């Protein structure tokens, strides 16, 4: 595998058929979405949440998530898009920011749960509040998000974008001169940050699924006493775990990446955002240690 990465120059075009041109980036993003929907569907079945809600909500998350991801990316590069306004909608050429996608997806979840689960979601013997229902939905979604990221990052490889610093390691990837960042034109091989992040996201996915297995097992046999005593993980713990783990991964990648991004006080913006997310995630984990209040049971 390393030898292939080290010697192969990828083509961004997956295949062409007449006037139809399919790019690897678009194909992989579509695959990531389909795999994500499958994972969410399986988890929803385990939690016994109606499948019709899963697919309806999935549609809104995809739409709002893509809009948020693209808008965040465009706002990070205002000078380019002001000069090339026709490229604002050309997301198939690359340019989807995860932080924006998370914001867009969160707004979709908030709107959908408020509209369709006015009394909250009932899981096994417990009726969750609107707020906890939202957190439960995000808990179900974040493993799919992590796995989708693992797949989608390969789109950056085929576009030869978002690579890292120059390297002589045997798994360094060659970048064509036209795609090299200014100041690095004399180098040929660069860190495959897409690969590092992809593998780490698979690890995050495994960790989150393990947590879900524990939560489902505990909820099936939970009593009001065990929940109030904190013996069952509260909704939101898995989401907070994802936010913390992915933010750590993103910070590590930002120290390697050489692509242009806004810099504040000498620090790349994604590092600042990810650091704030880690703090928020840790604070939320602390809050989740507190017992449920007035959780009705049947």
Task: Give an overview of the whole structure.
61% of the residues lie in helices and 7% in strands. By secondary structure, the chain is mostly helical. The protein has one domain (2-288). The strands form four sheets. A two-stranded antiparallel sheet has the order 1-2. Helix 3 (51-76) runs antiparallel to helix 5 and helix 5 (98-116) packs antiparallel against helix 6.
Topology:
Blueprint: H1 2-7, E1 13-17, E2 20-23, H2 24-47, H3 51-76, H4 78-83, H5 98-116, E3 122-123, E4 126-127, H6 130-159, E5 173-174, E6 189-190, H7 193-220, H8 224-228, H9 237-254, E7 263-264, E8 267-268, H10 269-288
Antiparallel strand pairs: 1-2, 3-4, 5-6, 7-8
What is the mean pLDDT? 84
- Order of strands, main sheet, comes to 1-2
Compute the separation of the termini in Å: 54 Å
| Count of folded domains | 1
Can you give the helix content as a percent range? 55-70%
Question: What is the N-to-C succession of helices and strands?
Answer: HEEHHHHEEHEEHHHEEH
Provide tags for this entry.
298 residues; two-stranded antiparallel ribbon; 8 strands
Provide a concise account of the structure shown.
61% of the residues lie in helices and 7% in strands. It is built from 10 helices and 8 strands. The chain has helices at residues 2-7, 24-47, 51-76, 78-83, 98-116, 130-159, 193-220, 224-228, 237-254, 269-288, and strands spanning 13-17, 20-23, 122-123, 126-127, 173-174, 189-190, 263-264, 267-268.
